[in-house]
Design a protein that fits this description.
heterodimer, A: alpha/beta, Nitrilase/N-carbamoyl-D-aminoacid amidohydrolase, 6-stranded mixed sheet, 14 strands, 28% helix, globular, B: 284 residues, mainly alpha, Rossmann fold, 4-stranded parallel sheet, 12 helices, 4 strands
Chain lengths: 290, 284
């Protein structure tokens, strides 16, 4: 980060090899090198960037443990700049998580285990993964951040919780397959994601970094469209196409303060009211006789 | 029967596509799924119909004209127009082609079974063409690229291990009415886009006569049934004729087997494709 409160971010809109951690690690090193040369201080990779997405029965053999040499190799990517990447994490009791990892200065800073595992339509994540059980923000050299992996953002509560933790930025690594063809020049999924990400940024007055992958797996295409959105909901940078690209943006971190002065939505948020109402709803739902 | 309203009548709006978007995805699909398994080339059976012509156009754009080979495999009863249309596509794209008359091998086999009806003969033709495509794919180090569209696949209107066989299929998720739109946008000759669809397995064969309904109506019904998951009652309320609904639903159901691998008797804890599940693009 430069002295003037500006942050150069880079999104690695890349195409991982399916089920080949070694080759993907090598690719990560190249992206890190390229991003570092641009002067970026934070580089975000897509969901499961280290393994590819439709792993199916490759999940266990693609996994790494938090306390392992493989994890130290990943941490070493973050010597020059902070790195967010996606990997399969195996817990000591052998559960497998679709996780997003934040590294800074050769250390693992935070792990977010994907909470909402899509298991419908073309998705089958709950067959292979265990769900995460928390949304937590964490400190970075650039302010507080929170991570949500792909489907997590389709649940309003996830971003809302991070917002109440006071995050300055939400980082969303994604492996979103493109679908929905109409007369529109963009896929239905691309339209939906742009709407959701911009809405969160504006409603929660936070930066929003969305990094989606590209390429094909078993015929499914990933549509890219990675974008950086400011706390007023405006898109600062986006790569619309579905090819590999390093998406660069410079954030003025003080924009969060300015936006929250202009639109003090967070100040006016009624957390206790929300909790009480949720409790009441939960109580009413659970006391039904059948 | 009148020619299909492939270009002349308005497209059912939910099945209207943005051709450039679809073209980009399908060209990317062919490049990616061919090259990452170590190939640069594809072979296809080019019948002269709109489906295989469209695939030839897409493959040529994706891989270059020197990497696409069209197989033109007529039988003695095939409509000469099929061959000439196929040759027109070959000439327009500048791709390689190989023409093999399959009459001798067909007739040699059916000389022993003269009673065989046109369905058996048609299936055999489709499978002879498949074996030639696969043989040529080895000789030329290429993948066999498929040409079945979504409407045919759903209706089971194809020969299993015949024209339905391929390594990759770029148009299997496009309904016939969408194939027409894309083919037209990509510059497939209008005469090919507009001619009455036919498998040309026997003289005068017509898809729409054989199926009993026009593709544009079938696709509308399939849109509500498959994409929107309408119930039978809802389809009737939508104005579809009951007999039409029943027949299309029967076809989709009864031909499910054609869209699956053979059923394997389960014995172990990890049976292929049931609980031994790996992506095709494993390590790619």
């Amino acid at each position: 980060m430069s002295q003037d409160g500006r942050l150069s971010v880079a999104l690695a809109q890349m195409d991982p090899v399916l089920g080949d951690r070694g080759r993907n690690l090598e690719r990560h090193r190249q992206w890190v090198k390229q991003a570092a040369e641009t002067g970026a201080s934070l580089l975000v990779f897509p969901e499961l960037s280290l393994t590819g997405y439709f792993l199916k029965d490759l999940v266990p053999e693609s996994a790494i443990q938090l306390d392992s040499k493989e994890m130290r190799d990943l941490a070493a990517l973050s010597t020059e700049l902070d790195v967010v990447l996606g990997a399969v994490i195996e817990s000591p009791d052998h559960r497998y998580f679709n996780a997003s990892l934040y590294f800074s200065r050769d250390e693992l800073v935070h792990v977010h285990r994907k909470v909402y595992l899509p298991t419908y339509g073309m998705f089958d994540e709950q067959r292979y993964f265990a769900p995460g059980d928390r949304f937590r923000s964490f400190a970075t050299p650039f302010g507080r951040a929170g991570m949500l992996v792909c489907e997590d953002i389709w649940h309003l509560s996830s971003a809302y919780i991070l917002s109440l933790e006071g995050v300055d930025m939400i980082i969303c690594p994604s492996s979103s397959p493109g679908r929905g063809i109409t007369t529109d020049e963009r896929l239905g999924t691309a339209e939906s994601y742009a709407l959701v990400c911009r809405t969160y940024a504006q409603f929660l007055t936070t930066f929003f970094l969305y990094c989606n992958r590209v390429g094909f797996e078993d015929g499914a295409n990933f549509w890219g469209g990675s974008m950086v959105i400011g706390p007023n909901g405006d898109i600062i940078a986006q790569h619309q196409d579905a090819d590999e690209a390093l998406v660069l943006a410079t954030l003025d971190l003080a924009d969060v303060r300015r936006e929250r002065l202009a639109n003090p939505l967070l100040r006016d948020e009624r957390i206790e009211l929300t909790i009480n109402e949720l409790r009441r709803v939960w109580h009413e739902r659970t006391r039904k006789p059948y | 029967m009148s020619a299909p309203a492939s270009l002349t009548e308005p497209v059912f709006p939910p099945l209207a596509i943005h051709p450039e978007l679809v073209r980009g995805i399908l060209v990317g699909f062919i490049q990616n799924e061919v090259r990452k398994v170590g190939f640069d080339r594809v072979v296809l059976n080019l019948s002269g119909g709109v489906d295989s012509s469209l695939v030839a156009f897409l493959a040529t754009e994706a891989l270059g004209k020197d990497n696409v080979m069209a197989l033109i495999l007529p039988y003695k009863d095939s409509d000469p127009k099929s061959r000439s249309d196929a040759l027109e596509v070959v000439a327009q794209l500048g791709i390689r082609h190989l023409e093999i008359d399959i009459t001798p091998q067909l007739d040699a086999y059916f000389a022993r079974f003269p009673e065989a009806d046109q369905v058996r003969r048609g299936n055999k033709m489709a499978r002879e063409r498949m074996t030639i495509a696969y043989d040529q794919s080895v000789a030329w180090r290429a993948l066999v690229i498929g040409t079945s569209n979504k409407t045919e696949l759903l209706l089971g209107y194809g020969t299993i291990y015949g024209d339905m066989a391929s390594a990759i299929n770029p148009i299997g998720d496009l309904y016939k009415t969408q194939v027409w739109q894309l083919a037209d946008a990509l510059g497939v000759p209008t005469a090919i886009v507009q001619k009455a669809p036919s498998a040309d397995l026997w003289t005068g064969q017509s898809d729409e006569t054989e199926l009993g309904f026009q593709y544009r109506m079938i696709d509308q019904l399939l849109y509500y049934l498959v994409e929107r998951r309408y119930t039978e009652e809802e389809l009737k309320r939508q104005g579809f004729d009951e007999a039409f609904i029943t027949e299309i639903m029967r076809r989709v159901r009864e031909n499910q087997y054609k869209r699956r691998l053979p059923v394997i008797a389960k014995l172990t804890s990890r049976t292929i494709d049931r609980d031994f599940r790996y992506p095709r693009d494993w390590g790619r």
